[in-house]
Amino acid sequence: MSRAMRTLAFGIVAALAAIACTPQADQQPPSGLGGTVSVLVVWGGSELDSFRAMVAPFEERTGTTVEIESTRDLNAVLQTRVEGGNPPDVAGLPGPGQMAEFARAGKLIDLGSILNTAAMGQQYAADWLELGKVDGKQVGIFIKASAKGFIWYDPQAWKAKGYEPPSDWDGLIELSRRMQQDGTAPWCIGLESGDASGWPGTDWLEDIVLRQAGPDVYDRWYRGEIKWTSPEIKQAWETWGEIVATPRMVLGGGQGMVATAFQTAGDPLFRDPPGCYMHHQASFITDFFVDNTPGLEPGTDFTFFGFPDIETEHAGGLEVAGDLFGMFNDTPQARELMKWLTTPDAQRIWVERGGALSPNNQVPDSAYPDDISRQIGGLLTGAKVARFDASDLMPAAMNAAFWSGVLDYAQDPSRLDSILAELDRVQAEAY
Length: 431
Prior knowledge:
By secondary structure, this protein is of the alpha/beta class.
């Protein structure tokens, strides 16, 4: 895992740069398989619709029914199902950290003899594969990727006010204060996500740590080698506090952040007049924009700028994430579905529908449906330093405590010292 993280930047750049209209071998699933396969996923709404579209050709060709269960509380539901001896055949995994716990408990099937390893080696950068390995065994595979740290806004609303994207963090805070003085909360933030509530705040802090303290501190942090009360990590929370702990900076304040679902948090960008002017979220949020506010056009009604640099020596960082899938029951139907989900043919379906990037380098650039998607791909290939989502790499208990700490801080920033001390306590037990 540590080797993968040291070289992840190069692996991601290589994978995304290799996207081209490459002829693809026939990787269609076998016909006439029949039966059923149960799948547990985290997605809802348009994301779930895109996953259904992704598996539809598999169902049509094989005659197998894919029984999909969707929950925003993936961590809790999956853990309960696995501990109860009733796991789904296939499931989205909360992240590499939790994946490792399931694998070492003997719950995940080794995919090494199931997937076409030769094809996988050609189509995936080595580091995407490495992140799905535990003790040398391939127990997870990424079927979708995203880039994080983008600031979304309505360019027409900005033009009317004369706002311009800032070049650094100080400029972002200056712009936020100007918007505040103009009478509108600059930020919309939503932290609600069922049992996973708080995770959008972890993305903020990860973006800040990467650009403020740098990649080495970032790596030591997710590995549990540096305390949460360390000056570097405490400074990241205080930096975030320039926005979330400052009155009238966020629509609805602390209670509003905690009560607002991440899926709809950006919707006030598109009100007339706007309820806010900026929203921090990963590349997948475009799916929710167009689903929640029909008629929006990428580039015209919404666009983005990258998370601004904080310290010049750590400029050019980018946080990435992805959706891992693992297999809990070894059935013919589960085997064939896992094979299908890793193919460029399957992943192209979601990419063409929007809101997703593909870790498979044989999905061509032409599959991306708009300039926004292609711009994000360009940022991925141009990143000086890329790091995988830190909270997803932490043990489950640490990840859950991180979410909880975010919610506590949003509601009462004065508790920061006690929040960090509690995270230190959990860290000592979780690693």
